[in-house]
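Re: [ENG-882] Designed sequences occasionally contain unexpected residues at chain ends

Forwarding the minimal case from QA. Structure tokens:
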């Protein structure tokens, strides 16, 4: 028995969950919309661990959350083609930068006035936020925001050089340089 495809009937593959999430038509696995995560308090951003893979997806499965979505070619192509998706990605970046006491300043990322207060919560060698920052840089680069990825990477390397190994381990610094 052979199957004959009808060229008049075209079936589209369902929209990837990451695209629906970033377009505002879908939710993450916990049922949250993108705007709800943007509204998280700093305490929620620190204490909640299952949103970062949605905000900044990578093409590799998350070791922390194996059920998190994986960045695929269709999603990357959509981010390349749709400025609105990249704008939402940059809003996600701004939310996370504020959490770290950083901000975009033109084509740079620089400390905000509250940097010292915010840094006390994450600028310690081995802190899980260092992995989050590596993820953010990599995702930005993969999704067409290379300028912002480079700016964040440069800022992090400068912070690491100023603070030393008690704030940023040599391993983390190597990851940031490679991102």
């Amino acid at each position: 028995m052979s199957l004959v495809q009808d060229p008049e009937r075209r079936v589209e593959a369902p929209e990837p969950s990451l695209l629906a999430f970033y377009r505002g038509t879908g939710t993450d696995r916990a049922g949250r919309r993108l705007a709800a995560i943007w509204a998280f308090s700093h305490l929620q951003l620190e204490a909640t661990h299952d949103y970062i893979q949605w905000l900044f997806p990578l093409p590799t499965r998350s070791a922390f959350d194996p059920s998190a979505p994986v960045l695929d070619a269709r999603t990357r192509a959509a981010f390349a083609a749709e400025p609105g998706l990249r704008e939402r990605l940059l809003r996600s970046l701004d939310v996370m930068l504020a959490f770290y006491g950083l901000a975009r300043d033109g084509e740079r990322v620089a400390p905000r006035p509250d940097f010292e207060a915010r840094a006390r919560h994450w600028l310690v060698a081995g802190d899980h936020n260092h992995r989050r920052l590596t993820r953010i840089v990599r995702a930005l680069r993969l999704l067409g925001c290379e300028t912002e990825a480079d700016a964040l990477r440069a800022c992090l390397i400068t912070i690491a050089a100023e603070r030393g190994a008690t704030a940023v381990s040599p391993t983390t610094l190597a990851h940031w340089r490679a991102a």
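QA comment: On inspection the terminal residues look reasonable. The chain has a mean pLDDT of 92. Proposing we downgrade this to a documentation issue.
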